[in-house]
Amino acid sequence: MTAPIAAARPAAPRVNPLQRIWLREIGMERLWMRPAPAAARPAVVPQAPVSEPVLAPGLAPAVVARDIAPATVPPTVASPAPAVPQAAPVSPVPAEPMVPTTRSNGRPGIPASILNRTGPPPRPVPKAAEDEAVEAPRIPVAQAVKNATLDELREQVVACTACGLCDGRRHAVFGQGATPTRWLVVGEAPGEQEDRQGHPFVGRSGQLLDAMLAAVGMSRETDVFITNVIKCRPPGNRNPKPEEIAACSPYLMRQIALLKPERILVLGRFAAQTLLGTDATIGSLRGRVHALKTDEGVEIPVIVSYHPAYLLRSPSEKARAWQDLKLASRMV
């Protein structure tokens, strides 16, 4: 009597000739050597073949212990065990069916309750108050300054973060001078001293500007308000970038609308190009009167001249700057 065949192996193992004779003798050669179908192959690790006794030629095979039927042992009568009360059977909770965990793409299975769910999705867990806080939308500068008073405009300039210049400034320079004013003097951007003190034209350029204004009987304390197109100092006193000019220009235009100057003296190329909306050189803009039309429809005369910092580097141009000042002072 042969032992029952174990689970089919994925492939027949290699056997030596003596083992093949032994398998033939016990009638298991075909079953052992035939590979199992692909669908019935279990994922088991094949075990090493068990060495069988070598038989001499002509001898009958020895009786193997596994072929001997177990001896019949008379059953013993055991004393009845005391009855033990059993708890009521608990019905097992059926496990949630799963999608087969082995897929062609190797992804894990998904519970059927999720795949077969109907109706609206579950409500999300409410977030904490700090997670729900959303940054308030930033109001454009032109809209924020539309109805601002001069004091409100000053506060907005001090707290402005419309461009990257706010990251490196010490003070935003709003402007300084007489209110109401006769002349509005517009420069380009604060320098190192202006950034340190928070007032426009306080360095060597400011001293030269005060002397030029005094030569035509004007003073920043009683007649002139001085400001810049850019309210924060560019790093290293570099030229203002177009996006910085665009972000800061609404402050200047609101200052003009509130101060209502009789005339505007523009100092430097960037200031002139910003106010007049042109890319012409300062040499072609100076020496004549331009006009700036406000939102209220009022036209304000504009005179273009060199920046005092340029005059300090090029003293020979002071004569032309003096002509520009006289042109501005003769205007009614």
Automatic annotation (TrEMBL):
Ranges of residues in domain Uracil-DNA glycosylase-like: 174-326
* SUPFAM superfamilies in the cross-refs: Uracil-DNA glycosylase-like
Report which reactions are catalysed by this protein.
Hydrolyzes single-stranded DNA or mismatched double-stranded DNA and polynucleotides, releasing free uracil
Q: What is its EC number?
A: 3.2.2.27
Q: Keywords for this entry? A: 4Fe-4S, DNA damage, DNA repair, Hydrolase, Iron, Iron-sulfur, Metal-binding
Q: Which InterPro entries match?
A: UDG_Type-4/5, Ura-DNA_glyco_family4, Uracil-DNA_glycosylase-like, Uracil-DNA_glycosylase-like_sf
Q: Where is this region: Disordered?
A: 88-132
| Annotated family | Belongs to the uracil-DNA glycosylase (UDG) superfamily. Type 4 (UDGa) family.
What NCBIfam families does the entry give?
Answer: UDG_fam4
**Protein name per UniProt:** Type-4 uracil-DNA glycosylase
